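Work Package 3 (structural annotation) set out to generate three-dimensional models for the target panel prioritized at the project kickoff. During this period the team completed the workflow that converts sequence records into discrete structure tokens, so that structures can be stored uniformly alongside our sequence database. As a representative example, we reproduce one entry of 132 residues exactly as it appears in the project archive.
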Amino acid sequence: MSILLVVLVVGVVWFVSRPTVPTIKSAAPLTEFHQAIERGRPIFIMFTKAGCRVCIDMYPVVQTLKDEFQGRVAMIVADIGDNEGWELAKKFDFNAVPHFIMIGREGEQAYTGQTTIEQLRVMIGAALAWVP
């Protein structure tokens, strides 16, 4: 009986503290993507999936970048478990999350997996610094 109680308590604690996708996730990633293209803005996309531990670890990094580059780069966080996120993901070739894509005038750069804020800043900075 006491083992069952311990298992129940551990289960409840896990359920209450389980990782969730924070508000950083874009509400309409496909729409935001098309709007950014129409406006000619550089686009940074993080593809994620609910329950992905590495993705969850990267959310604060992406939120910092979102705040830092606000107004200069369209920052999209797309959950591939959602319809719009999946439709956007089908436009790109990758097979793991988190997956980061930076689209600028010079083309596309991509990185998959856990990374540092410095590496992502370099990726974004290169797209912003490009001069034709």
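The first strand starts at residue 43 and ends at 48.
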